[in-house]
Design goal:
It comes from Tetragenococcus halophilus subsp. halophilus. Keywords: Hydrolase. This is Putative hydrolase. By secondary structure, this protein is α/β, with parallel strands linked by helices. 36% of the residues lie in helices and 19% in strands. The strands form two sheets. An eight-stranded mixed sheet has the order 5-4-3-2-1-11-12-13. It is globular. 43% of the residues are buried.
């Protein structure tokens, strides 16, 4: 029996217009009324999550790819970067003039370009960018001509005095091996082709789910998870039932137990009805 359902946000809960569909809201409310716990599992920060989900009955939250796990009342688990890992990230970004955001618990700091890139308006626009978009040229352009191109750009940020849970760096997929070698104390998580989420080694959304399962007193087998991108694969495989959206990456679909329709076609509602968790 499924006792808790977790949803990714971008590409899953949100349509390509950056909104939660009416049928999706109704489905989540129906789950809640049935006594099934509803949660989110996302790369987003708590502040961003609260803005999007303010009117919905969500009980549990996995933020920053599993680094912050909490309910509305308490923090269940948190894991910030160790100083060695954070020094590696900051040094790499400074030396290579990279665009990057550092994410604390309540706010973020860093590249204005990246912060704008995380805005809902641009995320909506980027869904229409063709796959042949010249990300390599764009990265080089920003490295060379950024108005903030200077040494120790990130090492002097005040936010470094606080715990940092995740860093988001402009980095196309072809750089994965190079980044992994340069940042051995980090794991690389991707939710889009253009940037990478850097988190402490050994961390994932599944780690967060395990803490919440223990908090609820239920089993992993009694959870269902929805997702669409590479950073959802591990949690989809670890949950009792893993559902990939119709718009998910090929690898995410291959990892799932079930593939539903897309985020623009009421995919969440369709899957919940298929598994008889809500009425048809």
């Amino acid at each position: 029996m499924i006792k808790a359902v977790f949803f990714d946000i971008d590409g899953t809960l949100l349509t390509n217009k950056g909104r939660i569909a009416k049928n999706t809201k109704k489905a989540i409310s129906a789950l809640h009324k049935k006594g099934i716990v509803c949660g989110v599992s996302t790369a987003r920060t708590p502040k961003s999550i609260a803005h999007i989900l303010k009117d919905l009955p969500f009980d549990l939250f996995i933020a920053c790819n599993g680094q912050l796990v909490y309910t509305k009342e308490q923090m269940i688990y948190e894991r910030a970067f160790e100083s060695e890992a954070l020094t590696e990230i900051v040094s790499y970004a400074d030396q290579h003039f990279r665009q990057m955001i550092l994410c604390g618990k309540n706010h973020s700091a860093g590249s204005w370009t990246m912060r704008f890139g995380q805005s809902q308006l641009l995320l909506h626009f980027m869904r229409f960018v063709p796959h042949y978009f010249p990300i390599r040229k764009m990265k080089r352009f920003l490295q060379k001509y950024s108005p903030n191109r200077r040494k120790q750009r990130y090492s002097n940020l005040a936010i470094l005095k606080e715990p940092i849970y995740q860093c988001v760096m402009l980095s196309p997929e072809y750089e994965n091996e190079r980044l992994a070698a340069a940042l051995p104390h980090c794991d690389l998580k991707r939710s889009n082709p253009y940037s990478v989420d850097l988190v402490p080694k050994g961390s994932s959304k599944l780690t967060g789910l395990k803490f919440l399962v223990e908090h609820l007193g239920i089993k992993l087998e009694e959870t269902m998870v929805f997702g669409d991108h590479l950073n959802d694969i591990e949690i989809i495989q670890g949950a009792g039932m893993g559902v990939a959206m119709g718009n998910a990456t090929v690898k995410t679909k291959q990892a799932a137990d079930y593939v539903t329709t897309t985020n623009n076609q009421d995919g969440i509602t369709a899957a919940l009805r298929y598994f008889n968790l809500i009425k048809k």
